[in-house]
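Blinded run. Sample ID left blank on purpose so nobody reads anything into the name before looking at the predicted structure. Input follows.
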Amino acid sequence: IRGDDRDNPVLLILHGGPGWPNAIFTPTLRSWEKHFTVVQWYQRGVSKTLSHNGKAASGELSFERTVSDAIEVTEFLRHHLRKDKVIVLAESMGTLAGVPLVKRRPELFYAYVGTDQYIDMARNEVLSYQMTLERVPAAGNSKAVAALEKIGADPSRWDVRAWNVKMGWTFKTDPVTPNLDRKLLLPLTLSSPTYTLRDIYHLGVGFTFAKAQLFEQLMAYDVRQESARFEVPFFLFQGESDVVTLTTLAEQYLAEVKAPT
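Blinded prediction complete.
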């Protein structure tokens, strides 16, 4: 929990991954702390929470359980920081919990803010796979073509390993920020002043643990299974050239959303 002024509104961040906390971005989000009290929450079975409690205490992970946990965290923040409501910022896989969270308990939140918003996971992965497969020949990478063709174009037939193959080549061939994981995420993690070597170890363990437990749920996700009507203001911030969470799908969904703002 970081910020310059306790009178500022509280921003609760639901990280994605699944299993990859956003706390590594704390140094780059320093300017936010002038305007918000920024709360980075390590979810169940993830990173420092995993380090403190272990896998056994984490139990079975689910997005439904993340929603319940997030309600508890929000209630704690309201009491601890003396606020009636908070703003929730859901990022990437965090959006799978963020949308049902504000629908279940709208009275707890001033607004929903989504970034890297997932809409229809199956459709997202079909299109992302096609885009990745189109990019790799231009890079002259026959190894990538072979790896992608081996897993096939049907996400319903993928396991976690196959999805990792697709995601790996998507990151490597991102036209705007190639090798984002190695060039940005890894250096931020290794240089984080809040991470010990033990924390970094558990970051990797939690990332693998969460992906394995949540894979089937995330691949079945479609935000349209719920109503597009929200009782709180609804905002989306999406990268124009996002090749992981596709902006075209987010734009289509935003056109369907009914919200106060």
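Unblinding after everyone has recorded impressions. The first helix runs from residue 47 to 58.
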